[in-house]
Design a protein that fits this description.
Mean pLDDT: 86
Distance between the termini: 43 Å
Radius of gyration: 20 Å
Number of domains: 1
Largest sheet: 8 strands, antiparallel
Strand content: 25-35%
Strand order of the largest sheet: 2-3-4-5-1-6-10-9
Shape: globular
CATH class: Alpha Beta
CATH topology: S-adenosylmethionine decarboxylase
Number of helices: 6
Structural class: alpha+beta
Number of strands: 10
Low-confidence stretches: 1-9, 93-108
CATH superfamily: S-adenosylmethionine decarboxylase
Length: 257
């Protein structure tokens, strides 16, 4: 199918759109600490800034962006760290939700799950915060429309983005189609001003397999970006800490231990 034609012409389907589209957005945010108190402060900051209720608000915003209707939610904070949320949603617009969290839910075809993984155990003081967000939809919703908001909602130092489309649906004439939106790269959906913040970018585009992946690592910003308070940017060991930080980022980006 010609890309230009498909981008301009809406395909008329027979019945419900059965295609499943899944966006996985996995990010790492790093922080430099110089003593145990700063580590404790970092964990407290993460617990306040990204607890289950805060992550739920982000998921609600995603639903608003992709025009999905929230059916129900489940949230959970963990001891000592971490949080998980799940939002059950539908592409049927105009419904209402009473904001009452439920624990036992039936997963509809469309949902958002989010899990956080704070890490302050590294002996060198390089702390990290990982978030895994999966947006699985069925119908006309395109999860990629929320990608720029995810960059805005978090501090992203290393990012892994995967996107797949599975199943098939049929046109009004009965012909099977395996994708209802055509593009070249995940990066086509990311604002240029966001991409400019990243120095390393890898792109895997298997359009014929309906598989895409983008990996990004942020530019070499100064220590002010990574310390808990501005005064720590002038710490005597800050140059050594920055070297350790960049080494940690490179290892995560290349999946090396």
């Amino acid at each position: 199918m010609d890309f230009k034609e498909s981008a301009q012409t809406k395909i008329k389907l027979s019945g419900f759109n059965n295609l499943t589209k899944v966006l996985s957005f996995n990010l790492y945010d790093f922080c430099i600490t110089t003593d145990e108190k700063q580590k404790d402060d970092y964990v407290k900051y993460i617990d306040e800034e990204y607890n289950a209720k805060k992550i739920l608000q982000i998921s609600e915003k995603i639903c608003n962006i992709i025009e999905a209707n929230i059916l129900n939610v489940s949230i959970q904070d963990y001891d000592p760290v971490g949080a998980s949320t799940m939002v059950l949603m539908s592409d049927v617009k105009g419904g209402k939700w009473d904001h009452t969290p439920q624990v036992n839910l039936h997963l509809d075809k469309s949902h958002i799950t989010a899990h956080t993984y704070p890490d302050a155990l590294a002996p060198d003081g390089i702390c990290s915060f990982r978030v895994d967000i999966d947006i699985a939809t069925c119908g006309e919703i395109i999860p990629l429309d929320a990608i720029n908001y995810l960059f805005e909602a978090f501090h992203c130092d290393v990012v892994f983005i995967d996107y797949v489309v599975r199943g098939f649906t049929r046109t009004a004439e009965g012909k099977k189609i395996y994708n209802d939106h055509y593009f070249n790269s995940i990066q086509d959906f990311i604002k240029p001003e966001i991409l400019e913040n990243f120095q390393y970018r890898t792109d895997i585009n298997l359009g014929h397999e309906n598989i895409w992946q983008t990996k990004l690592m942020v530019k070499n910003f100064g220590p002010e970006r990574y310390v808990m308070e501005p005064k720590y940017a002038s710490h005597p060991d800050i140059d050594k800490k920055m070297q350790l930080l960049h080494q940690e980022m490179r290892e995560v980006f290349h999946l090396n231990s």
